[in-house]
């Protein structure tokens, strides 16, 4: 059976949802430790009232729920991904700016460094 565009779209949406859930899991884990990450900082920029919730801490499950609700309404995760992509692009440019070399080990190492930068932003676990 040949894959249709619909199959590709469904697969893409499935992967996007998986990544979003993993991302939310990490944000929530950090929140519970009192660590405010970039997605939450961006959400607070969009929704200043979120600052009060953050200041109260996350011992109260209601605060966690409120914060996650604001996070999902915001562009916090999207902006964090954009920021990560900007840093990946800068890292790749820095690697590509290194002096030329014909040494196979150097070429393999540089390719590995570039691959790592891509994995950082596409990982799902």
From TrEMBL:
<dbReference type="GO" id="GO:1990234">
    <property type="term" value="C:transferase complex"/>
</dbReference>
<dbReference type="InterPro" id="IPR008949">
    <property type="entry name" value="Isoprenoid_synthase_dom_sf"/>
</dbReference>
<comment type="similarity">
    <text>Belongs to the FPP/GGPP synthase family.</text>
</comment>
<feature type="transmembrane region" description="Helical">
    <location>
        <begin position="9"/>
        <end position="32"/>
    </location>
</feature>
<dbReference type="GO" id="GO:0006744">
    <property type="term" value="P:ubiquinone biosynthetic process"/>
</dbReference>
<keyword id="KW-0479">Metal-binding</keyword>
<keyword id="KW-0460">Magnesium</keyword>
<keyword id="KW-0472">Membrane</keyword>
<dbReference type="GO" id="GO:0046872">
    <property type="term" value="F:metal ion binding"/>
</dbReference>
<keyword id="KW-0812">Transmembrane</keyword>
<dbReference type="GO" id="GO:0004659">
    <property type="term" value="F:prenyltransferase activity"/>
</dbReference>
<dbReference type="GO" id="GO:0008299">
    <property type="term" value="P:isoprenoid biosynthetic process"/>
</dbReference>
<protein>
    <submittedName>
        <fullName>Uncharacterized protein</fullName>
    </submittedName>
</protein>
<keyword id="KW-0808">Transferase</keyword>
<keyword id="KW-0414">Isoprene biosynthesis</keyword>
<keyword id="KW-1133">Transmembrane helix</keyword>
């Amino acid at each position: 059976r040949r894959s249709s565009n619909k199959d590709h779209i469904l697969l893409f949406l499935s992967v996007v949802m998986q990544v979003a859930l993993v991302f939310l899991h990490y944000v929530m884990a950090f929140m519970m430790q009192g660590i405010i990450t970039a997605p939450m900082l961006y959400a607070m920029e969009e929704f200043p009232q979120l600052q009060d919730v953050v200041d109260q801490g996350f011992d109260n499950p209601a605060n966690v729920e409120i914060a996650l609700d604001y996070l999902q309404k915001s562009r916090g995760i999207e902006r964090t991904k954009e920021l990560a992509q900007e840093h990946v692009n800068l890292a790749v440019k820095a690697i590509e700016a290194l002096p030329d070399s014909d040494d196979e080990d150097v070429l393999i190492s540089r390719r590995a460094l570039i691959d790592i930068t891509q994995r950082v932003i596409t990982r799902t676990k």
